[in-house]
Write the structure tokens for this entry.
Amino acid sequence: MSEKIVIVGAGQAGLQIAESLRAEAFAGDIVLLAGENFPPYQRPPLSKAWLQGEVAEQRLFLRGADFFAARNIDLRLGAHVTAIDRASKTVILADGSVENYSGLALATGARARRPAIAGADLAGVCVLRDIEDARSIAHRLPLAENIVVIGGGFIGLEVAAAARKKGRPVKVVETLDRLMARAVTPKISTFFADLHRAHGAELLFSTQVTALEGRDGRVAAVITAEDQKIPADLVILGIGAIANDELAAAAGLEVSRGIVVDSYGGTSDSAIVAAGDCTVWRRDDGKLLRLESVQNAVEQGKAAAASLTGRKKPFVAAPWFWSDQYDVKLQMAGLSEGFDGFVERVSGESAFSLFYYRGEKLIAVDSVNRPGEHLLARKLLDAGISPDKAQVADAAGDLRGLLR
Ligand SMILES: Cc1cc2nc3c(=O)[nH]c(=O)nc-3n(C[C@H](O)[C@H](O)[C@H](O)COP(=O)(O)OP(=O)(O)OC[C@H]3O[C@@H](n4cnc5c(N)ncnc54)[C@H](O)[C@@H]3O)c2cc1C
């Protein structure tokens, strides 16, 4: 039987697996099953440039139709997989058709979390995960009188910034006492809180939303644990994402808030790999880490494709991520969790980097409006180079020399 790899999910990770399989000289069949009715597209602009009308929708698509034809990748739109039968090595689609595989890649991504509170399904309550969600928000945004963003994380704050740029009133309601608390340190949270306030967004911290109230089926107010009633005709839920791991779990693969993969994208079945937002990575120290980023989808996708062709290429690069809010670009390299000190490298008002250390070891760098420093930080982290702290603090000092 000829080799055939079936990829479930045609997002950033699914596309990367298909592309890398051909780059690895895989000559068998590749079937790329897209649950959505769109070819692979990038999600980051949906809450940034696209939402602000600065990027045409066509620019979201990662590859043109000729790309798939040239590589003989059988991309099928609207092809939703409902089950995996590992014994017969087949996947079953929603239309009842069956696809056999010699190797299977799961790249099913994640979906937006919805809170289990009354009113979460009212009209005017939106999540932002895909193009349809983004179109719906873009349509409502210019007309909204009272926008409430629930969740002060990246996506919520990017939507808040887009709304303020359009002159719409925005309140951001956050359960914790600072912004982006799971991803950045207090100093960065404070910088962004000041930025949002300076642009006229209202921030409500330590505030728990308990219900959404409606009028004629449309959202009218957000109710908090303190019985505050905040008027709202557009509510954006930005409270995180849930890995789409149900297919894998039903097929008996190991899952733990995501499909558990090793550093090669391997799952508990040697014929099945997984990559991207649907996964949780078991690091060599045994710790489970969930990373939801383009870089993770791309790097895990490359490793997973290599594994399917029998090569071992671990995914090792330091994680990185970015967020655009107003005219500020935040870029993060490495994971600052567990830092015991940091050094500021200040290049001007609203342009600085924070270098995080554990002991003398550099573990992460957050940069605000310093794209060059972010790229440098990634190279330093990948090379395992920890610059001297005094050298970092001197903004005029050259750190590039350390890479030579
Ligand atoms: C608004 C927004 C902004 C973001 N901004 C950033 C950013 O600034 N920087 C950054 O690094 N990351 C950002 N991200 C995260 C980034 O987009 C994701 O990490 C990345 O898209 C993950 O790619 P993926 O292929 O794993 O999953 P996805 O892109 O979610 O793709 C998975 C695909 O699989 C399909 N699928 C699911 N189940 C099935 C099934 N059973 N059968 C067939 N198909 C199925 C889904 O419909 C989906 O199309 C953002 C995400 C969003 C939503």
Remarks:
- Residues 125-237 form a domain with the FAD/NAD(P)-binding domain fold (CATH 3.50.50.60).
- Residues 8-14, 33, 35-36, 43-44, 46-47, 80-81, 107-110, 128-129, 155, 244, 247, 276-278, 292-295, 297, 321-323 surround flavin-adenine dinucleotide (CB under 6 Å).
- The longest helix spans residues 294-308.
